[in-house]
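Hi everyone, sorry if this is the wrong subforum. Our group has a chain we'd like a structural model of before ordering constructs, and none of us has done structure prediction before. Sequence below.
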Amino acid sequence: MAFASGAAAAQIRNVALDIRAVSHHYDLDGQKLDVLDGIELSVKPGEFVALLGPSGSGKSTLLRLAAGLEHPSAGKLLEDGAQIGKPDPSHILVFQDPTLFPWRTVWRNVATGLEARGLLAQHRHRVDEALALVKLEKFANAYPHQLSGGMAQRVAIARALVNDPQLLLLDEPFGKLDSLTRLSMQNELLALWRKVGFTALLVTHDVEEAILLANRVIVLSDRPARIIAEVAVDKPHPRRRDDPDLVELRRSVLATLGISQDV
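Answer:
Right subforum, don't worry. Here is the predicted structure as tokens:
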């Protein structure tokens, strides 16, 4: 299956995500650690939603639940009305660390998912298409140690896209990159989302990043996380960082997080 683009992509390459009364806890040395508390959230097909909150508040846990890597202690998560019960190529999680196999070329790293599912022989072209989407086709035969941090993360995103995900879950994917590379990668992610049409759920600590990329910003409390604010960002893309409306929105979100000064 070739990658779709534009309006056609938005019709067939995304899903709705419904998080219904989800609570979650871990058992640590016999003690109950509450992480999530009654999260209610609906993400529309093709929507880009950002999750903001204090460090350790449970944002990454919510992504793991959406990816089917864990099961909630209470409540349920639905993808197009079907309960998420296990990992599936339709909902892919991209981590902060690209975790590439150092002994495999870029092409082979991207092909990992198809190879594991026994689909590589029939869909080799999808690896080339994914590399072209992230502008790394000329580095297909390179190895991870030959890549910059930003390039390695683009490989990780291509590895996700090759599985044709309808829901892309992003756990601080640019958190370890330098500021200039991070700005570039934000633009590239936005371009991919607009072109491919997947539904996106992004965890970030960067308020500006959330406002620049997302249609909606969900603000979580400290652990156990509850939703304390939902902020719609009604601005067309591309957005300017110095847009007065976005600057004011940034101040408002920071205040919600308990940070009164503009930093």
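For your construct planning: Residues 1-11 have pLDDT under 50 and may be disordered. The beta strands are 17-28, 31-43, 48-52, 74-79, 82-83, 91-94, 167-171, 199-203, 216-220, 227-232.
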